[in-house]
Amino acid sequence: MKSFSNTYIFVFSTIMVVIVAALLSAAAMVLQPLQEKNIEIQEKRNILSSIRIKSSAKDAEELYKKYITASFVINTVGEEQEGIDAFEIEMGSQMRKTLEQRSLPVFISSLEDGTKKYIVAVHGKGLWGPIYGFVALNNDFTTIYGTNYNHESETPGLGAEINTDWFGAQFADKKIFNKNREFISIDLVKGGADPESLNEVDAISGGTLTSDGLEKMLYDCLGSYQTYFKNQMKNNK
Amino acid sequence: MSDREPLFSSRNIKLLTNPLNVDNPITVQVLGICSALAITVKLEPAVVMAISVMVVLVVSNVVISALRKMIPPRIRIIVQLTVIATMVILVDQVLKAFAYEVSKQLSVFVGLIITNCIIMGRLEAFAMSNRPWTAFLDGIGNSAGYGLILIIVGFLRELFGSGEIWGYPVFEKIGIYNIGYENNGFMILPPMALIIIGVIIWVQRSRTKELIEES
Questions:
Q1: Entry pTM
Q2: Is A162 inside a domain boundary?
Q3: Is A1 an 8 Å CB contact of chain B?
Q4: Residue ranges of the domains in chain B?
Q5: Most buried of the four, A13, A109, A147, B76, by CB within 10 Å?
Q6: ipTM
Q7: Would you tell me how many other CB atoms lie within 10 Å of the CB of residue B101?
């Protein structure tokens, strides 16, 4: 076997690493706009899915334009904030701020039957990584119309069930405020939710930590919006 | 070089065809099983995975083979891994840009191509001691052998697990549900992939004399 000097090994590795680094950075830079576009489309599909509209990568842009008629940003006391695009807001970094500093996106959609839905963003922690999604409310700001949850790395078959249809469908018609207009959020119940209950849904068996994370996410995020919801309820009357 | 062999000599043809049958990476060498179980629920991700592995293996094989006289033996494994990892990241980036849906389905398994034993195995066993052209053929052959099994398993699992082929609802169209047929949920779970691969190995061994071990 041919032997190589240490100097040769160092030079060889250095050149190799430089070439690899250049190659990968170039690829990342060239492909980044396309990847970001894909993520944006996925985000739009998630929003559409929360108002129970199925979309594909191809028609998502079009459907989004059709159904999402307005979007704005509010703070936690329910005042509208100018100059921020709701779509650009990263809910994850907002939730790390203190309550007063958060900027929260609201999307308004007008459905074909003439009703308006208010879509808000949620973001929290699952077992292995972040979980996030959108919750659509009817215009009473109390009843959930639809939800869409996503996750980065929950366990397939267990925690990852949060983005299945059966799980999301449970939330429809549940209420996040009780009759006295107190914020009660949604409870994920182990061992079967009471079907009569206003705000209970089944947790995922085997996915306890993800379920707990999701419950906390709803409580924290919908909780940040509650002043806005209450103001809107007063306006409705 | 006067003793240069023709591009498609019988030895070279064997490099292409052996991995499809008597030297199949999955069913005979039993390598790369992990990804074969995980991403064969549907046909489309299985095909995309097969293509990704082919790109990674062929390019890494050729690169390593071309550099084989320059690579210091003491750091050869590191060099091999660097080449593989570079290719895998490139494939992952390209999938995220052009096939986002599929890349989401494949999720971590694209990244895990790095640890696919087939690739390291071929680089170490073949590319380090052969010319680029034969390494190229060896790469095509082995990844095709891997892909072939993936596609067979993916086809069977999608057909009987979801009643579809490439997302097209075959069973619904021919009306088989009307006579009481139901999709087999077990097909969607990883254990069934293992059972299917087991059956493929069984069929293959009973048909191929070379593979029958003498007791």
A1: 0.79
A2: yes
A3: yes
A4: 25-203
A5: A147
A6: 0.79
A7: 16
